Amino acid sequence: MTWQTVDWQKKIQTLYNKLLLSLGQCDLCGNNLNNCILPQQTLVCSSCFADLPLFKQAIVQGDLLNWPSINKALPNINFDHLVSLSPYLPPFTQWLPQLKYQGRFELASLLSTLLAQLFTQESFEKYALPFDLMLSVPLHPRKWQIRGFNQAHLLAKPLAHHLQIPYDRTALARVKNNNSQVGQSGKQRRNNLVDAFMLVKALPRNTKHVLLVDDVLTTGSTTNEISKILKRADVRTVTVATICLSLPETKN
Ligand SMILES: [Zn+2]
């Protein structure tokens, strides 16, 4: 009897969640979404949007590497600029796992729209390079098969559309599979990632400025390793764009 009850409870909860979304209710507070700020935005009300813990981009002039504590936490990096929406704080600590592990694809649309908006802000003019190409951090094929999708690609595809940048999801490949890197030190991550990625096809001629997209930057090891490969292929600047930064120094 008990197992049947639990099963039905789950089903009802799922249906209820779907109903809330179809009624246009805020993902965070449940209020209705009559006052959406963004036309593409159908998940968060104006009040919750205003409460999002976004980085103050004007202070760092559009590049988080200008923030001393972030710069200090990312020594010896191979990328040139860092753009990110928010420290890894709620609601992003719920949204990103929901996108990655529960396949809530509608969140990719919201998050990529918010990220795209950053590039149109005045503070970004200094770094408004004419990006030649956008790439996303690839998953190893085995992980991709199990998960069924790559969350970085889900974010990059609409971002490329918003920013009108050519996007190639297949130029980079992950050729070395590691277990989850959660909880590992920066040194362990760096060791795991040696030769983990490769360019599987030549970049278009004169690809000088690349925008590399991932969901979260934790130690910078992954984006650093890929940037190293891109620089070897004559790319001049790599700008890393992520939804969140999870550096210990930026959590508060
Ligand atoms: Zn709300």
From TrEMBL:
The lineage of its organism: Bacteria, Pseudomonadati, Pseudomonadota, Gammaproteobacteria, Alteromonadales. Pfam families: Pribosyltran. Residues 154-244 form the Phosphoribosyltransferase domain. It comes from Colwellia maritima. Gene3D superfamilies: 3.40.50.2020. This is ComF family protein. Belongs to the ComF/GntX family. It comes from the Bacteria.
